[in-house]
Design goal:
By secondary structure, the protein is mostly helical. The protein is built from 18 helices and no strands. Bound molecules: phenylalanine. Phenylalanine (PHE) is lined by residues 32-33, 35-38, 112, 237-238, 240, 245, 331, 334-335.
Length: 461
Amino acid sequence: MSETTKRSTGQHQVKRDSFTSSLGMMAATLGSAVGLGNIWKFPSMTGTNGGATFLFVYLACTIVVGLPVMISEIMLGRTVKANAITTFNKLSPKKQPWGLVGVAGVVAAFLILCFYTEVAGWVFAYIFKGISGSILTTDPKVASDMFGQLISNPLMSLVWQWIVLVLISFIVTFGVSKGIEKVTTKLMPILFCLLVIVGIRSMTLPGASEGLKFLFAPDFSKISGTVILMAMGLAFFKLSIGMGTMMTYGSYCRDDQNVPMTATKVMLADLMVSLLAGIAIFPAVFAYGFDVTAGPSLLFVTIPAVFASMPFGYLFAIIFFVLAAIASTGAMLSLFEVPVAYLSETKQMSRKGAVITTALGIVILGAPAALSHSLTADVTIFGKTFFDLFDFLSSNIFMPAGGLCICIFTGWVFGKDRIREQLSNIGKLNNGGIISLFTVLVKYVSPILVALVLLNMLNVF
Ligand code: PHE
């Protein structure tokens, strides 16, 4: 048997790293879920898609589709204890091309990293701009020009992306337990504390209640096909599912961990962070009369302007961007781990070699995305810049399609007997009811819903 298969079958586990505790697994998984999705995407999408109505649809997608896919991924990964592609290859019946779902996952990880590292770069840049005080202006026009200057400068765009890549590569090189787990267990509690501080500040502003109403009082007439598609895409993006991240993390999960419980806790905690981010942002935006529908620039234009208007804004602006930087770091670590695990387990590469290869790949592929607001701004494919295209392809096509395949694979190929065995930890856990509910969801409900949304997007009906 070759070295490659020895590694990937798990028979001869060549020093395969894993999370050292349940808490470590929770921190890393939550670190993956919580990210710019909560702070950048969730508020801007909620703002532009009708507030509470969007929140309601997003919530439904998260529970009915997101959670089952997440449980499936962690379970499948833990069963095989290998990277996403090997996991599918090992579990797939002969001559069935399920390995392609894993391949699509690795491709999606690259696509996401291309634009994600760029936005993270802006966040890191804003910490320094915050410290220098230069972003604190109450005039949204000036704030907008400041942001425009940063993103339209090709050199700065690339340099910030590279700085982020070096940081993430450095942490991932240390491995799963000594790198990812160690860093995320420290960062997650800090993130929660900072978020609560900013949330309290925002809610105690005069006029904050308008913002809360916007976030929590739905108007169901606003639900449309597009709203559902966007909400489902966000649910996938938020939970880091449909592209092998949770599968890869699941492969480092201990056999005695309660998978449905862990996934549910991560889903709830992630939701809480999104709500807290909404609570930190919307009341303040309303209190100072800014535009909630600013979209992606909400984070970099509206928020600094909002902070500049409030007492102690200088400090809160810095805290806010540090918080966003922490959140993005946990997510990027998990994105990196998908190709790194694959390359190091199947391509005879050392971990360091796999990390460098991945980082170089992002330097090359990510450049067009990073330059989308400067040199490549005029290059559009399907009317989208590289940045928007990578974002759209990953969130709205790769991840839902991957999630659909994962549901079908889990429900119909992996099958209910193995589901029962795995989710009960071979009979050690007494969660029969949850397993039955999960099996029905993953076999019928979730795949049908995702398929409907995808077909709707392709204008089939
Ligand atoms: N969940 C992360 C966020 O919300 C993004 C992400 C997507 C991370 C896919 C890993 C995989 O920012």
